[in-house]
Amino acid sequence: MSLKKSDEFKSEAVQLALTSGLSRKQVAADLGIGLSTLNKWVAKHKHDDLMSGPHDDLHKELARLRKENRILREEREILKKATAFFASQKR
């Protein structure tokens, strides 16, 4: 049976995984969670950190802006395709 872990537990698990010097496999085993679960939490943490806004670290800020720019371009392309599709349906 799977129990939902608190956000605090997830945050502490991610910090352990990133800073303890132990392998993620070992951290997951020590905490009684699956390795894939821990990897998902770490990936989400990195994504959330990257998208959280301006950073003192210019490399992080540049990566965040590039990702945001890529997302916006993808959204724009979707809107263009949708507009073209609906315009062709009116004919």
UniProtKB/TrEMBL annotation:
GO biological process terms on file: DNA transposition
Any Pfam family hit: HTH_Tnp_1
Residue ranges of coiled coil: 55-82
The keyword Coiled coil is assigned to this record: yes
Protein name, entry field: Transposase
GO MF annotation list: DNA binding; transposase activity
Alphabetically ordered keywords of this record: Coiled coil
Organism listed in the record: Terasakiella brassicae
